Amino acid sequence: MQTLIYRNSKTLAAAGLSFFLALSLTGWALRCLEVNQPYKAFLGVWPYLITCSYTLAKVLRDRHEADLDQARRAGRMPGQATRSTVEAE
Asked: What is the pTM of this model?
C-alpha cells in the first residue's frame, strides 16, 4: 500500500497549527464560560465529535482513492462492465 506524501509541509504545518489553536481556544472558552458543569460537558463533546467525523471522512476518502488506484492498475474501473461479463448475461 502506498503512503501519502504531503507535498507542501508549510501548508500542513499551518493547518495543524490552526486546528490546535481553534481547539485550544474552544477549551479555554468552555473553561471560562459561566454555566453549570453538565452544560459545559455537553458543549465540550462537540469538538471531539467534529474531530472524529473529520478523521472518518479522511479515512473513507483515502480508502476510496486507494480502491480507484488499484482498479486503474488492474486495468479496470469500478462500475464499468467488461466484455466477458456482458456476454455472460
From this structure: 0.49
